[in-house]
Amino acid sequence: MEVPESENLQVLPQNIPLDIIFEDDDLIVVNKPQGMVVHPAPGHFEGTLVNALMHHCGDSLSGIGGVLRPGIVHRIDKDTSGLIIAAKNDFAHRFLSRQLADRSLSRVYETIVQGRVKEVGGTVNAPIGRHPTHRKLMAVTEKNSRPAVTHYEVINRYRDHTHLRCRLETGRTHQIRVHMAYIGHPVLGDPVYGRKKSQKGLDGQCLHARQLKFVHPRTGEHMELSCDLPEYFIKALSRLGPPEN
User: Fold this and answer.
1) Do 164 and 97 share a structural domain?
2) Is pLDDT of 225 > 80?
3) I need a labelling partner for 54 at 20 to 30 A (CA). Which of 5, 70, 160, 238 fits?
4) pTM for the model
């Protein structure tokens, strides 16, 4: 066996505009647009949120996530828009990570799903792990899975779709997308767990991280941050016609 020489990975700062919802000396909360990758990975070493944060914050990002994920406390998918927290120092990173672990950091999403959800709300409590045959996908499965809980409530119903609010109790990869598909209501525009062709003019899933609640690591203040629905989401709603609740 031959071990190749190690490569010195470098993530370069890039002057990419950021929609900053909150910022201080310990953390920054950004409203990420749909289509932006959170951190560099093979095929995406430029144009990521990390590239933009490195330009904006300079050396003021925690190092816990490693060279490719400086400051990143939690992630959202490339085609999911909305709020994401980055830590500016290791103290803040550890404090926020503990809140993720004990489920006291609240993350609320809005989404449009296929079909009319009959109940006013509910909970999906189904473990998520790697798909047994498609290893790049996630699935509800009992093997090599971890507990996953998603709470949802109906905002509006349309003829063939439903506008939902979802609150994550856990934070598994693709959790809302997998859980909604599992109950027969895949996320609109999701090419992986839903219909394969483009829907309602969308370039990806209609899923937006709308609200964050957490305790500030330095001040102990209870923070509650939110952002507006993005244009792509509003356009998708308008194409559904009037609500039929």
Assistant:
1) no
2) yes
3) 5
4) 0.91
